[in-house]
Design a protein that fits this description.
Elements lengths: L35 E7 L5 H4 E7 L7 E11 L1 H8 L10 E2 L5 E7 L11 E4 L10 E5 L3 E4 L5 H5 L4 H11 L8 E4 L5 H13 L2 E6 L5 H11 L3 E4 L9 H5 L5 E4 L4 H7 L7 E4 L12 H5 L4 E4 L2 H7 L4 H16 L8 E5 L3 H8 L7 E5 L1
Parallel strand pairs: 9-10, 9-12, 10-11, 12-13, 13-14, 15-16
Antiparallel strand pairs: 1-2, 1-4, 3-5, 3-7, 3-16, 5-6, 6-8
Helix pairs in contact: 4-5
The structure holds NADP nicotinamide-adenine-dinucleotide phosphate.
Length: about 375
């Protein structure tokens, strides 16, 4: 099995990531279960194949300000794996249900719920929601409505990777049509969103991927999404590539990988340019040459979409506007979900195993 990257510093305290009962468990049975919920539960951190179990849980009664939702589909993202392994920046109290992203349909609302109604499609607004389950009862405030005319796979994967891509393209430097950016891990879910959203802005992308047996197919796949250039990490070190960068000096670099891959990318960034690190898939520290800071005045930044959501939680219309902007791109065919393999919840072991393989360029989606 491969390993997954992680972001940020390890935080080992008991972190209250489950403000609602979406992410917490009602285990055991005081009284007769109202309705059984199937969920992928972990009671200890470790290898996901070992510690995750499909369990039947009791569904708590619906409170006045709560909503009962039926999960439709939930992806397996690197952060989900890291959370189960215990290596993510924030960790839930155990036992916990796995999964942080997904789309659900509202089935029932409490008497004081006014923002959501039966039939709405919703996504969790924070981490630790425990989306790998069939049904949940959760606070209205822990959910964000999304347009329900989106394809299911897109809806299930809209609230993390495309949001991350959009924010990194909007919030760091002003990008104009014709500008270039460079990114590594370009075939990741985030990378594929970056390619498409950048293309919709007229921004050109230089995309770095790892060498693999079916490289030509991957290059064709990324170009079909709108990638302008696709190179391997090894290509990036070849002097021949300097010609490409003569007319295409990137002003923004997006770093999914860390380690040495960062140095290679920084070499091509324009003086005064900005690199945003959002992932650490190589599990190596980000390497920045001293000269890049002293003589080239590069800006080295980081981004975490979870923090953006927390910082903007006081005004849900900002999250709404972001989802609407992305949904508009989906409706016009300018943003599609990454290639996906779908699994029923009971086949979670196979899905997890595939999610941890290198060179797949596919998301694994649990469909409930
Ligand atoms: N900061 C944020 O707000 C935020 C939000 C979303 C995601 N992320 C992070 O972004 C990263 C990508 O997430 P995702 O959902 O887009 O992932 P994904 O779709 O599962 O793709 C994983 C990517 O990582 C690459 N990779 C795996 N191991 C690698 C290694 N050892 N060296 C170099 N590349 C490697 C894969 O390339 P191959 O095809 O070559 O294996 C693939 O491009 C993760 O670290 C995730 O935690 C951060």
């Amino acid at each position: 099995m491969g390993t997954m990257g992680f972001i940020g510093l390890r935080y080992m305290g008991r972190f209250g990531v489950c403000p609602s009962r979406f992410g917490s468990l009602t285990l055991g049975s005081r009284g007769i279960p109202r309705r059984a919920v199937s969920a992928l539960v972990f009671r200890a951190h470790g290898d996901p194949a070992e510690v995750l179990r499909l369990e039947e849980l009791e569904l708590p009664a619906l409170g006045e300000t709560e909503v009962k939702v039926r999960m439709l589909a939930a992806p397996i993202n690197p952060a989900d794996i890291n959370m189960v392994q215990g290596s993510y920046a924030i960790l839930p109290s155990l036992p916990a249900v796995g999964g942080n992203e997904g789309v659900a349909e509202v089935e029932e609302v409490g008497a004081k719920v006014d923002r959501l109604k039966r039939g709405d499609w919703v996504v969790p607004s924070d981490l630790g929601s425990g989306t790998w389950r069939t049904v949940a009862v959760c606070a209205e405030t822990s959910l964000q409505r999304i347009p329900n005319r989106l394809p299911l796979a897109m809806a299930a994967t809209l609230s993390v990777n495309p949001c991350t891509a959009l924010r990194m393209l909007h919030d760091f430097i002003p990008l104009n049509p014709g500008d270039f950016l460079i990114q590594n891990g370009a075939n990741s879910g985030v990378g594929q969103s970056v390619i498409q959203i950048a293309a919709s802005m007229g921004v050109k992308t230089i995309n770095i991927v790892r060498k693999r047996p079916e490289l030509e197919a991957l290059i064709a796949q990324l170009k079909a999404l709108g990638a302008d250039h696709v190179f391997t990490e090894e290509d990036l070190r070849k002097p021949a590539l300097n010609d490409v960068f003569k007319d295409a000096e990137p002003r923004l670099a997006l770093n999914c990988v860390g380690g040495k891959a960062t140095v290679d990318m920084l070499r091509h960034l324009v003086n005064g340019g900005t690199m945003v690190t959002y992932g650490g898939m190589s599990r190596k520290p980000v390497t920045v040459p001293t000269s890049a800071l002293i003589f080239r005045n590069l800006n080295i930044r980081g981004f975490w979409v979870t923090q953006w959501k927390k910082d903007n939680a006081h005004d849900p219309s900002r999250f709404d506007a972001m989802l609407e902007e992305l949904a508009a791109l989906c409706r016009t065919g300018r943003l599609v979900s990454p290639a996906l393999s779908e699994y029923p919840l009971k086949d979670y072991r196979e899905a997890l195993d595939n999610a941890m393989q290198p060179y797949s360029s596919r998301k694994q989606l649990l469909v409930m």
